[in-house]
Write a structure and sequence with these properties.
The protein is mainly beta. It has a single domain (36-329), classed as Jelly Rolls (Sandwich). The chain has helices spanning 2-6, 9-24, 26-35, 68-71, 142-145, and strands at 43-44, 59-60, 80-81, 86-88, 97-102, 113-118, 133-139, 149-150, 156-163, 174-192, 205-214, 217-223, 233-239, 246-252, 256-264, 270-276, 286-290, 299-309, 320-329. Strand 13 and strand 14 form a beta hairpin. The two termini are 44 Å apart.
Length: 332
């Protein structure tokens, strides 16, 4: 009787359908689609980010800037905006120019102010490295909110970036701008807990979880005709794949405004979205979903911008303009 019920016409059709779904991977794809969250969905966190509309907006650089990544000097106090929403990274230091300007044409409707960030000296203050270096500018998240955001709250961040005409870009093929986030994961490490005694036994060890930070995001890479490319162009690079590799994104043949966004879901994945223009992101703007470096995200601490140049003491970076860096939470 049991086998007769299992092989009824209704169950046969159901089993065949399940087999087809498994064969095509439809169930897996559907689960991934449901797990993704478009950046900008949910509740906007009003305390975090900036629209740069205040005409008295100002930034206090507190020079010289930090360069901990190169010489272990954080040179306190750090640079910070008048409203406490944007601040210097003590790891790489801030851009040389952090200035509110009139919003370039084609920006967000009603926007009158945006932020120009640009650098010439991206290395150690007073020292020319003649190597590619970068400066960082961070959005204040943890100080304002009182701590990191668990990915169970599905945080996401969105920004509009103005890409100037290609003739204004640094004449160098390579990465020139970054939009990234700082995430935390738990990395297991083996710690020795006993002492080795001569001729008797072996030392003991235990596995301990250690908090480790990593920085997924976008880089804008320029392909300069000065370096032999047929014409100037750019592309988005996703950092990073599961092995730490760069993942190619869309090509950029026409400069102007772009919208970039990342979301971080409870399964520890990072979802990257982007499109030309300033309209809100939608699911069709999804570029990639990754587990960068094989890490599973646990918490988000900030998001930030990189300005990159060759640090030769005479070449200014590309003038980057950002507007409305915004944080969202999408707690289900």
């Amino acid at each position: 009787m049991l086998f007769r019920n299992l092989l009824s016409p209704a169950n046969v059709r159901r089993l065949c359908l399940c087999g087809l779904v498994a064969l095509l991977g439809v169930g897996t794809v559907g689960a991934q689609f449901r797990a993704r969250v478009v950046p900008g969905r949910g509740q906007k966190v009003e305390q975090v980010g900036d629209d740069f509309e205040a005409t008295d907006w100002d930034y206090y650089p507190n020079a010289p800037k930090s360069s901990t990544n190169l010489d272990k000097q954080d040179r306190q106090p750090s640079g910070i905006s008048k409203n406490n929403r944007i601040y210097e990274s003590t790891y790489r230091g801030q851009p040389d120019v952090v200035k509110r300007i009139d919003t370039p044409p084609g920006g967000l409707p009603g926007s009158k102010g945006a932020l120009l960030i640009q650098s010439m000296y991206t290395g150690v203050p007073g020292f020319i490295s003649r190597k590619q270096q970068q400066d960082d500018l961070l959005v204040n998240v943890t100080t304002i909110l009182g701590g990191p955001i668990p990915v169970s709250n599905t945080p996401s961040c969105v920004v509009r970036v103005y890409l100037p005409p290609f003739e204004q870009w640094e004449r160098r093929t390579g990465s020139q701008f970054g939009f990234r986030a700082e995430l935390e994961t738990i990395k297991n490490e083996v710690v020795r807990t006993g002492l080795r005694r001569m001729f008797r036994g072996a030392e003991t060890a235990e596995t301990v979880g250690k908090v480790e930070q990593y920085w997924p995001g976008f880089f804008v890479q320029f392909h300069s005709k000065h370096d032999g490319h047929k014409e100037d162009s750019a592309m988005l690079l996703i950092r990073a794949g599961s092995r730490g590799e760069e993942v190619p994104g869309p090509m950029i043949t026409e400069p102007g405004w772009w919208t970039l966004g990342m979301s971080f879901t409870a399964d520890g994945l990072v979802h990257y979205y982007a499109h030309a223009g300033v309209e809100p992101l939608t699911e069709k703007d999804h570029i990639s979903t990754q587990r960068p470096y094989g890490f599973t995200a646990r918490r988000m601490t900030t998001f930030f911008f990189n300005v990159v140049n060759v640090d030769d003491g005479k070449t200014m970076s590309t003038p980057w303009v950002v507007d409305d860096p915004t944080l969202y939470l999408h707690t289900r």
